[in-house]
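Subgroup meeting minutes
Present: P.N., E.W., G.H.
Scribe: E.W.

1. P.N. recapped why we're keeping a running log of single-chain structure predictions: easier to compare across weeks, and new members can see raw inputs and outputs side by side.
2. G.H. added today's entry (561 aa).
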Amino acid sequence: GMAAELIATAPVFAAKIHACAEVIDPLVGWSLVDVLREEPGSPSLERDDVVQPALFAVMVAFAALWQAAGVRPDAVIGHSQGEMAAAHVAGALSLRDAATLVVRRAQQVVRIPRAGGLLSVPLPVAKVREDIAAWPDRLGIGAVNGPSATIVSGELDALRELESAYVADGVKARVVPINYASHSPLVEDIHEDVLRAAADVEPLRTDVAFYSTVTGALLPDTSVLDAEYWYGNLRQAVEFERAVRAAFADGHTTFVECSAHPVLGVGITQILEGREAVITGTLRRDRGGLRQFLSSLAGVHVGGGAVDWAAADWEGLLAGRPVRRVALPSYAFQRERQWLDVAADGVVPFVPGPRPAPEQAPAGGGQRPGSGGDLTPERALDLVRGAVAVVLGHASPASVPVDATFKELGLDSIGAVEFGRALAGATGRPTTSTLTYDHPTPASVAAYLTRGDAEEEFTAAGASDEPIAIVSASGRWPGGADTPERLWQIAVDGVDTVGPFPSNRGWDLEALYSPDEPRTGTSYTDRGAFLYGADEFDGAFFGLGPREATAMDPQQRLLLE
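Output recorded in log:
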C-alpha cells in the first residue's frame, strides 16, 4: 500500500507509475495500478513475477519524485534488479527497455529448474566464501551488503545444510523468503534464455555516474549495458558494499535510497560508519505518503545534501497545496507554537538557504547545543524526545514518554539508526549504531549525553538509594528444568538429560544423522542434551511479530527469557 497514497496525492509520481503501466500491463496481462492499490481480484504481491515489476515502477517513480523536489542524482547504484531502475534513472536505458527487462527477468527466474533460495549470514564475505566451498556448483555468494552482511544463494537442500551448520556454531543465519536462487550457479541453467530476453536492449551513454554492483566499481561507459551485462547482473554476486565505497571515495556523500522501505540504509550506515555522509530512505513501512517523503527531503537538506529549491516542481509534487516560507526553530527540535501549527494545518514548511554554522548561537544567546559542557539534563531530554518525535512522526516531543523503552515506543532497527542521526545533528556529538541498545530509554540517553561515561541515573527523577535486589531467576535447561532449584535437583539426583534429536526445530533428521560417513553439516550421533521446548516462546511478550519470533535463534529466545 506504500504507493497508493502517492498515486492519489503526488501528480509527478502518479504520472511515472502510469507511464510504467503502459509498458508493463501488456506484457503481464494484469494492471500495475490495481496491484499497487491492492484492488480486489488483482494478483498478489507475494508472487515473484508480480512484485519485481511493481518494485521497479515504484523505484523509478520515487526517483521522479525526488527530482521534482530539486534532488537530482550525480550517481546511481542499483542492487540486483534495482540496476535496471538505476540505469533508467541515469538515462542509460529507456523506460520501455528497462521495464521490459524487469518483466522478462521476473518471468524467467521463477523457471530456474533447480529449487533454490537465499540465506542471510551475519559474517564477512571472506569467511562465508570458505564455508560454502564444501558445496561447489551448488552454492555461491549472492550479495555483499556490508562488512558483516553476506547473502548466500543456491540449491535449497545445500542452503539448509549450511544453515544447520551455522546454527550449530551459534551463527544467526536465516533463510530469506524468496523462492529462487538469483546470483548463484543455478542461473546458468537459463543462460541462453536471459541473453535472448535482453538481446534487443539499446543502452546509451550517460553523464550520470553509474556504479556497477556487478563489478563493484564505476562503469566508465554505460553503453556496455547489453545482454551479456544483464546476464552477469543476474548470475554474479551483488557487490553492493564495494560500489558504495567506490562512490564515497569519488566524493559522493549523500545517499538516497529509492525503495518502499529503506532496507539497505542500515547496510550503507555500517559501510560508512565514522564518515561524514547523509543517508536517507524515501518512505517507511506503514508510513507511505507524502508527509514521510517530505520528512526524508527535509533530512537531505538539513544534513547538507544538495537540494535545488528554486528548480522544484511544486505543482507536480504537491498538486496545488500552498507552499510558503516560515521561520523554523533556531536549533533542532526547539518547540515553537508557529511550527506546530503550520505542520498541523497541512501547509508544507520549507526554508531554502544555508543552515546555521556550528559556531552560531541559537536565538536568545548561549552556545549551540552539544558544543561543550552546556548541555543541561533538561535540554538533553528535550533533544532526545524531539529526535524520537521526528522519527516516529509525533506532533510534539511532549508526547514521548521518558521512561518507555525505544522498543515500546515503536523504534525498529532502521528507526534506531534514524534516531541516532537526528540526535547527532541536534547535539553536534557523534552517536554509535548501538545507542538505543546501550541506553534503552530517552531518560537513559539523556543521562548519557549529560554525564558521558559516568554512572547513569536509573530513573528520570534521579538515582535511588534502594539497593538492587534479585527477586527471581529462571531459565531453561535439559531435563525440563526451568528454575535454578530444579536444575540443582537434577544434578543432586543424577538425572540423565540425554535424549534423541528434537523434532520441533525443522531439522532434516535423516540427513543430519550420518554415523558411518561423517561430513560437514552432519552428526555421528543422534542423541544429546537438548531443550525440547525451545519452540515455546512468547514473542508477543517481547513485542515481536510471529514471523520474527519464528526466525529467531533459540539461544536469543533463551537470552530474552
